[in-house]
Design goal:
Length: 546
């Protein structure tokens, strides 16, 4: 049974009640680290100044660096960070299957980073939301003219609910449209009040709408319209409580992900929420230190009751009556003995804590130690992978995985997929599964760097023994060792020789070695043949013995 308008409005009211405490916290966080997104309870006009509460911009800069670091480690723009697989290594290596998977992955990459798709900028906005508030939302839709388009949705518009499995399956978006935008979106189905405003020339008047997206409970598999799709979408005009437009989706269009989630909570918590005590203290410390510095350079002046009423402190000023008959000054600066350096040391300490909370320590260490050895770099990469594994795993599960499936579905329905090999189709149908997504980003490789670290440490431990007995290295498949280390370090695949090429080169080397042995043995064989021939001739010419 499809949800009625009343049911959707009731659910929206319940969602807003649950989110009340969150909005108060998000507003506090936004004012400290992301003031341009402070639109939860206070509505600001575009272009107004919003950072009046900041005495120190370091938390805002740390958040920007956090988003950039996660982007470069999780979804770098300079390299592919996903690969498709059947789950069967032997099948993946079949030539036609490998070509199809590579072509499919390239199609997704080219569409995602098309200038018209706008993925890179919207992904950065979502990462800022994750770092500040712990929850981010991205809308993935088909683009007019073909391809995919992406849009980061402000958290103030997003209301979510989970299934019993803890998966976000219901998303309500509460937003406003101008009369002109509403007519563009809904056409003749635009609510009468909005249409009347538009027709009267008030194109910029704004109206509130609700977009409710949820699993469809009454799917009619025989239908080809919205009623036959697994995800339902309803545009509701709350003022008149009417459904303006109904849509259907093959996949959830709103990709909502969370940084970390506390038990029994639906919305996430980001680093900024955990760091709010330090961030608030930093602003207060910065304010008091500024006041102390002002007092040090412009101290208060102590004057007697009968001193001059006006006192000029400008350079070269002449203050008559400021000394007594003996030339003693009647005005004295008051020095409270404030040590500004102590305040700056404390500020530096708090800044470092904030930077560490935004994962700055894990991405700064390579810059601070440019002369480290390969093994040291591997150990640091291993630490980075271990410390970022929980949030990275959640982002892959809640953001990247659903997004890739949504992208692939959109492009498939646009006819952009190449023909699937029969052997691959049969495999997927027999398993009842879809292609698997493997992540190849730097942070994913860092989590696997333990393999390379173990190899390098083993070789370092065996080095003294190898000086006595070099055969200890014979237990290792050096070519496979090289491939593992190169893979963890992110060496491009095109820089590595394929197994087929290595096998061909080995066969050529063996054939060449065999030919060399033959050529080397040829003179000896010829000399042996000559000697045997001479000996045979001598035996034939020798006199017979009676």
């Amino acid at each position: 049974m499809a949800d009625t308008v009343g049911q959707m409005m009731q659910r929206q009211a319940e969602m807003e009640a649950v989110r009340g405490n969150w909005e108060s916290m998000w507003e506090s966080v936004a004012r400290m680290v992301l003031p341009r997104s402070d639109d939860f309870r206070s509505k600001h006009s575009p272009g107004v100044q919003r950072n009046q509460r900041q005495y120190d911009a370091f938390p805002m800069q740390a958040l920007d660096k956090f988003a950039a670091a996660i982007e470069s480690g999780l979804i770098p723009r300079t390299e592919t960070w996903t690969a498709l697989s059947t789950g069967d290594d032997d099948l993946d290596e079949q030539h036609e299957v490998k070509l199809y998977l590579d072509d499919h992955n390239k199609m997704l990459w080219d569409s995602r980073y098309s200038p018209k798709a706008n993925f890179a900028s919207q992904a950065h906005e979502k990462l800022l939301s994750l770092g500040a508030f712990g929850t981010g939302c991205m809308l993935v839709e088909p683009r007019t003219g073909g391809g995919v388009q992406y849009r980061s949705i402000h958290l103030s518009e997003v209301f979510i609910d989970e299934s019993w499995q803890g998966v976000i399956d219901v998303v309500h978006r509460k937003f406003t449209l101008s009369a002109r935008q509403a007519v563009q979106l809904f056409g003749p189905d635009t609510p009468e009040k909005v249409l009347a405003r538009h027709n009267s020339g008030n194109h910029n008047d704004r109206f509130e709408f609700l977009h409710c997206v949820m699993p469809r409970e009454d799917i009619d598999r025989t239908r080809m319209d919205a009623k036959g799709l697994p995800v339902a979408g309803y545009y509701v005009f709350p003022e008149s409580q009417q459904i303006v437009k109904e849509e259907g989706y093959h996949e959830m269009p709103y990709i909502v992900s969370r940084y970390t989630v506390s038990i029994r909570e639906k919305y996430g918590r980001g680093p900024a929420i955990q760091l709010m005590p330090d961030i608030s203290m930093l602003q207060e410390m910065r304010r008091t230190t500024i006041e102390a510095a002002n007092m040090a350079v412009d101290p208060p002046t102590l004057l007697p009751d009968d001193a001059i009423s006006e006192f000029d402190l400008t350079p070269g000023a002449r203050n008559y009556g400021a000394v007594d008959d003996q030339g003693r000054a009647l005005a004295h600066p008051w020095n409270p003995g404030v040590d500004v350096r102590l305040g700056m040391d404390m500020i530096t300490d708090v800044r470092n804590q904030i930077d560490d909370g935004f994962l700055g320590v894990y991405f700064r260490v390579l810059v601070d130690n440019p002369q480290m050895t390969a093994t040291q770099a591997m150990l640091i990469a291993q630490q980075q992978g271990q410390m970022t594994a929980p949030p990275v795993g959640r982002l892959q599960t809640e953001w990247l995985g659903p997004m890739v499936r949504r992208e692939s579905g959109i492009l498939f329905r646009q006819g952009r997929h190449s023909d699937m090999p029969a052997v691959l189709r049969q495999h997927l149908e027999s398993k009842g599964e879809s292609l698997k997504i493997e992540y190849t980003s730097p942070l994913t490789r860092a989590a696997r760097s333990g393999e390379a670290v173990s190899i390098l440490r083993t070789f370092e431990s065996l080095a003294p023994i190898a000086q006595i007995d070099p055969s200890v290295y014979a237990a290792f498949d050096t070519k496979e060792v090289a491939r593992i280390v190169a893979d963890v370090n992110g060496v491009p695949a095109k820089a590595m020789k394929s197994p087929e090429k290595l096998a061909a080169e080995q066969e050529a080397e063996e054939a060449q070695a065999m030919m060399g042995n033959v050529l080397e043995a040829a003179p000896i064989a010829a000399q042996t043949a000559k000697t045997m021939a001479e000996a045979q001739a001598m035996s034939q010419n020798a006199p017979a013995l009676n």
